[in-house]
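Here is a complete protein record:
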Amino acid sequence: MATIFHDFEVKASAEAVFEVMATPQGLDRWWTKHSSGKPEIGEEYELNFGPGYDWKAVVSELLPGIGFEWTMLASDPDWEGTTIGFLLEEGKDSVKVRFYHRGWPSENEHFRGSCYCWAMYLRLVKRWLEKGEEYPFEVRLSV
């Protein structure tokens, strides 16, 4: 099984980072076109990325303000059963985000493309929290 890892620093509180990465309102600022769900163990999230991309995930791990994880239920076949999550390490003036996407069936082309896309999306978390920049869904990967 293959795993994508991305670690980065954000000049924000752990609470603010957690909010933008684990709640529907936060996800809609940088990743999803529209999402819904509650950050509670066993709760289902709906993750919409446009026509034909109505995905679902269940919250499989929750450490309020510290960590969060979904297990993908309905998605692209390569994503189904994978886990997406993060752990936060609060420093003096910033938070280190330790992001992962585990359980890929292989390091195929979709895996390689997703490595790139996650990096592009996660930088938007940093830009939102540090500079207040927000971009429409349709242009997020080209900013």
